[in-house]
Amino acid sequence: FLGSALYAQEGDYYHHLTAKGNPLFTHKYTADPAALVVGDTLWLYIGHDFEGGQKGYKLKDWLVFSTNDMANWTEHPVPLKIEDFAWAKSGDAYAGHVAERNGKYYWYISTNWTGIGVAVADNPAGPFKDALGKPLLTNEDCFASDHSWACIDPAIFTDDDGQPWIFWGNGECYYAKLKDNMVEIDGEIKQVNFDGFVFEEAPWIHKKDGIYYLTYASGFPEKIAYATASTIEGPWEYQGILNEIAGNSNTNHQSIVAFKDHWYFIYHNGGMQRGGTSFSRSVCIDPLYYNFDGTLKRVQMTTE
Ligand code: FUB
């Protein structure tokens, strides 16, 4: 069976897993991976789908895994649950993203109905605590909020000048500056728009050699598409599809990260293990390669 071997320990249950292929983990359903590199460790912050049979996105907590070598993974105790956000009435733990600033770790999370919140911790494994006691962004901040999940999928990007930005949305893609404290929006909320932009959700910004890359889920079932720009505020140029639908999941949700001199595309699909579906998803990792002109080679899902 392609997947990972699990070595579970009793007690505080740090799980030690050895990844042998995609999907990365087979003992739980995992979705919406957000990667963060801290020193020589890659951290993955992941949504936790319920097991089998459900008809909607049922996520109540988030999971954390770390690795130093992309082969041996440690699963940390669950650091954050939707119930840690008293204002999150719907109880749906949608996608998140963790960013580091001034030695603290900020976990931006999204919910159905009640928007985007942020929790803070002193180290990457937590414990994390709601930083605000209220949402950072709500549907009112998404001008076209005609559905309960309009204000989801936060993605943080800190530019070389130290300015942190937040991108998010469903149907429309919004962005704004964050203040140095990481828990307040600084100034105007703006919208991303360019020719060929068919945005569903899951924005992610990364930068390489002076080029800004905006990757995002496009269409439904979702494919990951991307655009490039020479400034964080655009103008963006559509570059095409990066990753086709993989497995039988209607959603895909990616992070892109450089770790130990290699670039990785980390995403989810629904087809890789016992009863996988759109609502029982599995995180996968594949290498990401650049062409000489800065465009990205398409990512084909592998099983190794
Ligand atoms: O996991 C719940 C939602 O499904 C996420 O917020 C979206 O990006 C999609 O993957």
Automatic annotation (TrEMBL):
Please name the catalytic residues of this protein. Answer: 32 (proton acceptor), 201 (proton donor)
**What processes does the entry annotate via GO biological process terms?**
xylan catabolic process
> One of this protein's Pfam families, by short name?
Glyco_hydro_43
Q: Where is this site: Important for catalytic activity, responsible for pKa modulation of the active site Glu and correct orientation of both the proton donor and substrate?
A: 153
What keywords are annotated for this sequence in UniProt?
Answer: Carbohydrate metabolism, Glycosidase, Hydrolase, Polysaccharide degradation, Xylan degradation
One GO term in the molecular function aspect is: hydrolase activity, hydrolyzing O-glycosyl compounds
CDD domains according to UniProt: GH43_Xsa43E-like
Superkingdom of the organism of origin? Bacteria
Protein family: Belongs to the glycosyl hydrolase 43 family.
PANTHER family the record matches: ENDO-1,4-BETA-XYLANASE, PUTATIVE (AFU_ORTHOLOGUE AFUA_2G04480)-RELATED
Name of the protein this chain belongs to: Beta-xylosidase
